[in-house]
Design a protein that fits this description.
Elements (H helix, E strand, L loop, with lengths): L1 E5 L2 E5 L7 H22 L3 H8 L4 H26 L10 H9 L1 H9 L8 H10 L1
Antiparallel strand pairs: 1-2
Length: about 130
């Protein structure tokens, strides 16, 4: 206890002041940051640390898992684009083979990043021929 002199008179108060909930939360957060720094510096798996401490809610965990899937997909796409080693799909169409011959780089780009295309007259004619 500590005596405090004020215009109203002498008072006593606890000193140092007892920690508040905010002080306790701040100290816990600081300890989590220290643990995370140590884990990252050691090269450990931080994802297991996050789940073990239950820092993330179930909804957050699902969101993070979907981000992990997106990252894995984008990383795979980037590595495929950088390597330029593509596997032709089984049974390529005649149009695809002609495009491969005409523009190999463009064909590879379209194969890596498939987008719907408007049917061409030649494609419709080929479908009718083979039906």
């Amino acid at each position: 206890m500590r005596r405090i002199h004020s215009p109203e008179g002498e008072r006593t108060a606890a000193w140092p002041a007892p920690p508040t909930d905010r002080d306790t939360s701040r100290a816990e957060a600081a300890e989590l940051v220290r643990q995370a720094q140590e884990l990252i510096a050691s090269g450990g798996d931080e994802t297991q640390w996050v789940w073990r401490l239950r820092v993330a809610s179930g909804a957050d965990q699902q969101r993070i898992a979907s981000w992990d899937q997106d990252i894995a997909f984008l990383t795979e796409q980037l590595s495929r684009r950088a390597s330029h080693q593509l596997v032709l799909p089984p049974g390529p169409s005649a149009s695809a083979l002609m495009e491969l011959h005409r523009d190999p780089d463009g064909f590879a780009t379209r194969l890596l990043r498939r987008m719907p295309r408007q049917p061409s007259r030649s494609a419709r004619l080929g479908e009718r021929f083979h039906d």
